[in-house]
Write a structure and sequence with these properties.
three-stranded antiparallel beta sheet; 521 residues
């Protein structure tokens, strides 16, 4: 029954970034400039844009001196870039002895040359990060006796960026759509998105690939179906007259899928023969050895960082599944916390003081509900005092909230909170979004995008008067209504304000400037 559901779902779902038709133009043994020109003509621009986007929003943000690192790497590795013959490429692919047949043709060669010539610095960064992620992928694949070469699928899907979010909503290393993630029992809510969990998402991806293999019994077709869905692969097989060889159905597949398998073959090639092309890993910021601890009560990353020699950013990198820096454990439910191996014993020894650290600042253990007044104080006033500045970004056509958050290296939950975005995160071209960035990087971010408004270090919460310690009095301003007032207090609706003030629907239409309303805090 599960397979029928999978097939039906595949008819409706595709995933990933769009790619154009790939031409078979051959590369000549010319200098780098001529090679790059051919690559621009043969590899879809959308594929290059995706690679650049994930690289810029993840790897570059992890390097404090990006210009220095890249300039040194370029100087040392760009003097003599090898240009290989087709016979050498074919010999190397054959010698890999893979359970997945690695074909070679002009299209595959174009992608190999893309990775080894034009995008060699991105590859160097991915090689470094792969030291952390590949063992996770290989262990899950080996447990199911599946080809280990499938470990390169996330290289194509997300460039090994655990926070990758595509314009169509595919998320994480394996780029799961929301419906696919739910289908494979991944938890997705306001605090947790297990599509971004390297371990759980990998296990789900392995199950999905196994299900696809049960349908096609051909790994190349499985890889194609992973990208565009089994329904599109089935239609391509039928239109080709029943042929089941990938290259026979190539032109019957969706345009965005045609370059997917060649890119997968090229990724396996470059991760095997990168040294022969003078490409060497750039050491990642992720620790070599990690371990997990099961957390049984709610915990904020800042509580851990305050007691251990760990930064919040390090905890985010190792635990990208937690959307708001909060591990929402408790009430009988546990969650895993990943941290460097040498900090595990410290956490166990100090866990009582870690959980108690600034507890009231982050959680109300009496009723476990959010305190709107404290959230304004902590998240708004604190921003101006911790070396951040306020920028106003103008939404452009095609922008999505996730991409904007990654552009400025902030969490989507923060962007949503700062701008009172609704659950659907609806934005429109021309809309102004507030973004808080480190003061030392303000000029850098401002030069990369269009802003409106002034840069300043303060965030103003609504001016209120306190009454009875439980309510505050808010003075209505000209042009305001209950809905706009409620937006200033996260977690409060216009119906709440009506209840606290004894207002009816007819009264709401008559509120006027200067009127005072009680707001419960």
């Amino acid at each position: 029954m599960r397979f029928f559901i999978l097939l039906f779902w595949g008819l409706w779902c595709g995933k990933g970034w769009g790619m154009n038709v790939i031409s078979g133009d051959a590369l000549t043994e010319a200098d780098t400039v001529e090679v790059s020109q051919v690559l621009r003509d043969s590899v879809p621009q959308s594929f290059l844009d995706k690679l650049n986007y994930y690289y810029n929003t993840w790897y570059l943000s992890k390097q404090d001196s990006v210009g220095y690192v890249d300039s040194v790497y370029i100087a040392e590795n760009s003097k003599n870039i090898p240009v290989c013959s087709d016979s050498l490429y074919l010999l190397r692919l054959d010698s890999m002895q893979s359970a997945i047949p690695f074909s070679f043709n002009d299209i595959v060669r174009n992608y190999i040359e893309l990775y080894t010539v034009k995008r060699r610095f991105q590859v160097a960064n991915m090689l470094g990060v792969a030291k952390y992620y590949f063992p996770i992928f290989e262990e899950a694949l080996d447990a199911e006796c599946m080809p280990l070469e499938l470990r390169c699928l996330p290289v194509i899907e997300s460039a090994l960026n655990p926070r990758a979010l595509s314009p169509v909503g595919a998320c994480g290393l394996w780029q799961f759509m929301y419906s696919t993630g739910k289908m494979y029992k991944l938890e997705i809510n306001s605090f947790v998105d297990e599509r971004r969990d390297p371990y759980l998402a990998t296990k789900a991806a392995v199950r999905y690939l196994n299900d696809l293999y049960s349908i096609y019994e051909d790994w190349i077709l499985v890889i194609a179906a992973y990208n565009c869905g089994p329904g599109n692969v089935n239609k391509a097989i039928r239109r080709s007259g029943g042929k089941k060889n990938y290259w026979d159905i190539y032109y019957y597949l969706p345009r965005e899928t045609r370059g997917y398998v060649p890119a997968f073959i090229a990724a396996n090639y470059v991760f095997r023969y990168h040294k022969e092309h003078g490409i060497f890993p750039i050491e990642p910021t992720l620790p070599a050895m990690c371990d997990s601890i099961m957390v049984e009560d709610a915990l904020h990353f800042e509580q851990i960082a305050a007691k251990l020699d760990l930064s919040v950013e390090q905890l985010r990198d190792l635990n990208p599944q937690y959307r708001a820096d909060v591990i929402p454990a408790g009430f009988g439910k546990c969650y895993a916390l990943r941290m460097p191996y040498n900090h595990v014993h410290d956490f166990i020894d100090w866990q009582d003081s870690i959980f108690a650290c600034n507890r009231s600042k982050y959680f109300n253990d009496n009723d476990r509900t959010a305190d709107p007044a404290s959230r304004i104080k902590v998240h708004a006033h604190g921003l101006g005092a911790d070396g951040r500045v306020r920028l106003v970004y103008t939404v452009k056509s095609g922008d999505v909230p996730g991409a904007i958050a990654m552009k400025f290296n902030v969490r989507l939950a923060d962007l949503k909170y700062w701008n009172n975005l609704n659950k659907r995160l609806t934005i429109r071209p021309g809309q102004k979004l507030v973004v808080y960035v480190p003061e030392k990087k303000a000029a850098q971010y401002k030069s990369k995008a269009a802003f409106a408004g002034k840069v300043n270090n303060t965030v103003r919460a609504p001016k209120v008067e306190t009454i009875d310690g439980e309510f505050v009095l808010y003075t209505v301003k000209k042009g305001e209504n209950l809905w706009t007032i409620a937006k200033k207090y996260p977690g409060i609706s216009n119906r709440d304000i009506m209840k606290w003030n004894g207002l009816t629907d007819s009264d709401v239409r008559g509120i006027k400037p200067g009127q005072k309303l009680k707001i419960k805090i």
